Amino acid sequence: MFNSQSSIQKTIASKLLLISLLSFMINKTHLSSNNSFTVSPHIANMKFDGHLSFKNNENESKDFGNRYHLIPSAVLHPKSVSDISSIVKCIFDMGVNSELTVAARGHGHSLKGQAQAYQGVVISMESLRVPEMSFHVGKYPYVDVSGGELWINILHESLKHGLTPKSWTDYLHLTVGGTLSNAGISGQAFLHGPQINNVYQLQVVTGSGEVVTCSDEQNTDLFHAVLGGLGQFGIITQARIALQPAPRKVKWIRALYSEFTLFTKDQEHLISSTNSFDYVEGFVIINRTGLLNNWRSSFNPKDPVQANQFTSEGKILFCLEIAKYFNPEESNNIDQEIDSLLSELSYIKSTLFQSEVSYVDFLDRVHVSEIKLREKGLWEVPHPWLNLLVPSSKIHEFAHEVFGNIFKDTSNGPVLIYPVNKSRWRNGTSLVTPEEDVFYLVAFLSSAIPSSTGKDSLQHILTQNKKILSFCERPHLGIKQYLPHYINQEEWKAHFGTNWEVFFRRKLSYDPLAILAPGQRIFQRANAFSIE
Ligand code: FAD
């Protein structure tokens, strides 16, 4: 299924020449400069199985973050891998005299223009419908999918075979290429690792336009580079995703804690036990009222009388969110198993809420919120999200400062907090994590109201994020950003730390002209424009 070709080798001399060019940082002045250039006639005259569009490309200059709007010169809607490789190759062949860059765009759910290309070419990966999903059953089942495929489609198709991918994101209307370029972390990551752990093979178009198949056995360096590689080393055109037998139902459970120490102790216990839940997450609740009443539309209190008496007003609460998968014929056993697992935990007993939903409804849960928010016009608003990876040994210091002094309420959006255990994750990828084995994903998922000047304004949320980030910069904390965003190369170097050398070396090997994913702002296109 995958088309193998030899991997690229650049000459040492050309690499050395380009090292200096790559070192220049991109800045906002460049992005907003009036330098106007168009796609070369070369490209405009190329023949594709799909098509290039030069007009009405507003969609490709937007993303979920809704804060960066960089207009491309052209958008390629590819119908074949060769469409992608030929346009990248053509731009590569233009050499250092060209300013053109290429951004693969998945579903455009980036936060700060990471899938955009100012006056460059955006490749709309969702148009790439090849290969058709193809399933392989057996001891280690998998599915081959296009890099532009949405996870929700993979879920539906896999279920027809009684199978499912193992590791997810909280929201499934994202593409394979988009999440694999980051990591894909959710409540299953403690068990299976992130999505980048659950891929057997990729087909990639490198920054010189070469089509390369890579895996743990073949072109391993490129495989590892691309996983978590922020789109810097190649465009993922196909992926082989690991599957497992699918459950049909899910027991979905929430319970509250008022003591952070008990909350994290229980979360860490659950992610380290051999017999545990299938999904472990959690979130913080600050200054919210009527919380349990809100849950009642979809969850049932275990003890309705006691739940009625519980008052959350004013307190900082921590909600453990866990799920156990099952099939209906096992339903008696599953209740016993859950009771036994719950008996080891120290949540506030009156706050135990449960729900039973289909596997699809559980995994696609955020889409329900999307539909409601869209109806109210609150989906396409600015999303100044901040995602952090905090070492377990520092999570109390972090919580004390951030939830105690900086972050005053969670009414602008959820704040997720849950631990994962890195010891089960794939080594050698481009993903940057804290050094400790156990660390927490802490995600501030705020939405800003465009016309507001109050606590839900973009300005207010950005100021709060800045305070959090400035606290996180204390070196002894060892905190890393997830879905990172920096504006100059010094900051990127600090982010990668000792991994920077490898990241840089890989860039020189696989995208020496820095053509790919300019919106990440790690490297600047090697050309005269950048050297000022
Ligand atoms: P895009 O935003 O289109 O692209 C992201 C980056 O990847 C860009 O740099 C782009 O150039 C590059 N890229 C895209 N396609 C390819 C490709 N085929 N090959 C190479 N590079 C490519 N993340 C989690 O880990 N866990 C979560 O639970 C989670 N929940 C989310 C919930 C919501 C509502 C949203 C909006 C995002 C969430 N995310 C989560 C973040 C999400 O994983 C990233 O934003 C991801 O990049 C989005 O995928 P996309 O297909 O929209 O990618």
What would you note in describing this structure?
- The protein is built from 18 helices and 19 strands.
- The protein has helices at about 10-20, 30, 40-45, 80-95, 150-160, 175-180, 190, 220-225, 260-270, 290-295, 305-310, 330-340, 360-365, 365-375, 395-405, 460-470, 490-495, 500-510, and strands at about 50-55, 75, 100-105, 120-125, 135, 140-145, 165, 200-205, 210-215, 235-245, 250-255, 280-285, 300, 315-325, 355-360, 385-390, 415-420, 440-445, 480.
- It has a nine-stranded antiparallel sheet.
- A hairpin with a 4-residue loop joins β8 (about 200-205) and β9 (about 210-215).
- Flavin-adenine dinucleotide binds next to β3, α6 and β10.
- It is an enzyme of class 1 (oxidoreductase).
- Its EC number is 1.5.99.12.
Largest sheet: 9 strands, antiparallel
Mean of all residue-level pLDDT scores = 91
Give the CA-CA distance, first to last residue: 46 Å
* Overall strand count: 19
Give me the Rg, rounded: 23 Å
- Unique bound compounds: flavin-adenine dinucleotide
Q: Quickly give the structural class.
A: alpha+beta
- Share of residues in helices: 25-40%
What proportion of the residues form beta strands (DSSP E)? 15-25%
User: How would you sum up the global shape?
Assistant: globular
Stretches where pLDDT is under 50 for at least 5 consecutive residues are 1-37, 527-532
Continuous helix count: 18
Please list the strands of the largest sheet in the order they lie side by side: 13-15-11-14-12-17-18-16-19
